[in-house]
Specification:
It is a single chain. The protein is an all-alpha fold. Among the domains are: about 50 residues; about 140 residues. Helix content is about 75%, strand content about 0%. The chain contains twelve helices and no strands. Helix 2 packs across helix 3, helix 5 packs antiparallel against helix 6 and helix 7 packs parallel to helix 11. The longest helix is centred in the first third of the chain and has 39 residues.
């Protein structure tokens, strides 16, 4: 493991393993953010598509109930006006969002009302174009989702290559892996229409939950019991921490073993999800994969603790270890 307080965490005999772990972490983070974003967009588009394609108007029904209107002619007029009113309210909310952002950005100088207006027009025009494309019967949903992914990923990639912040190469590698995974799922399992979004979103959220445990192990963000650290002498704290990491790794091994048996059974049964035709094991394999990765990271954290490192430690503890190492070097 990398010695705390060193600028380069990849020095030493454990450097290559730490680099591999960090690149896997980048891929996990890419999967987490992509799955969260895609699942949210899918469910939103599912609702929007059903509302845009529906002949009735929820706004008209709500207004009719409030005003006590049940006349067919009046209901027809409300149904016609409902989408228009909804559009006006939506445009107003978009303008308010841009106006608020401009207000915070223009602190100390005169606020411009033209910029939020232009941004609102551009945003509404773009959303309107996407809605029009979405309603075209000849445009399959997979191509529409690919269009949205291309737009979002293109903006993120442009920002990444422009700033080239530390770690941008590993982020670019993670982007390539996540994009390949997204394209494979899109071309093989995206059916036509948008009503299947909830099924795929549930699968992605399952992966997000279990991969989140592995990510937290890498970042030292799991809940830890600090009572033992107050009893154990400081000279023995690294060994007590190592024992705690190993016990957690044992639990993860047990859960990974159970998940493996469950996933193996799912593979043998060859079941598939009804709408997307995705094999059942794609969801269940998240359990052994995530717990196995978490187990390996806690084992690494135990060895790091014994050697005086800070891998897997909570951020504040890592800072304390790094500061103590720096002070020792200064004393020399």
């Amino acid at each position: 493991m990398a010695e705390p307080g060193e600028d380069n965490p990849y020095k030493g005999p454990w450097g290559p393993l730490r680099r591999i772990d960090d690149w896997i972490f980048r891929i996990e983070m890419g999967v987490l953010w992509t799955f969260l974003g895609v699942s949210a967009v899918m469910v939103f588009l599912d609702v929007m598509y059903r509302r845009l394609a529906a002949p009735d108007s929820k706004v008209a029904e709500l207004a009719a109930r409030i005003l006590g209107i049940d006349d067919p002619d009046s209901m027809a007029q409300l149904t016609t006006l409902g989408p228009i009113v909804s559009g006006v309210i939506g445009i107003g909310l978009v303008y308010f969002a841009f106006w608020t952002a401009e207000k915070h950005a223009s602190e100390g100088r005169e606020q411009s009302w033209v910029k939020p207006l232009v941004e609102t027009i551009a945003a509404c025009a773009g959303l309107g174009l996407l809605g029009w494309i979405m309603l075209q019967p000849q445009v399959e949903s997979r191509w529409f989702y690919l269009l949205l992914y291309t737009l979002g990923a293109g903006l993120w990639l442009f920002k990444l290559l422009k700033t080239r912040a530390p770690g941008w190469v590993s982020q670019l590698f993670a982007f390539a892996v996540v994009t390949a995974l997204y394209l494979y799922i899109t071309f093989n399992y995206f059916p036509d229409g948008y009503s299947w979004s909830k099924e795929l979103s549930l699968i992605m959220l399952l992966w997000v939950g279990f991969l989140g445990a592995s990510v937290c192990a890498h970042e030292g963000k799991h809940i830890q019991v600090g009572a033992l650290k107050k009893v154990v002498p400081p000279s023995m704290s690294r060994f007590s921490d190592a024992i705690g990491y190993l016990l957690t790794a044992s639990f993860c091994f047990f859960m990974a073993l159970l998940g493996y048996e469950y996933a193996s059974e799912a593979i043998q049964l060859e079941g598939r999800f009804e709408q997307t035709n995705i094999p059942d094991w794609v969801a269940t394999i998240a359990v052994p994969a995530a717990f196995a990765m978490t187990m390996l990271r806690y084992i690494a954290a135990a060895f790091s603790s014994i050697l005086g490192g800070s891998y897997g430690a909570a951020p504040e503890e890592e800072a304390v270890v790094a500061a103590s190492q720096v002070s020792k070097k200064g004393a020399k």
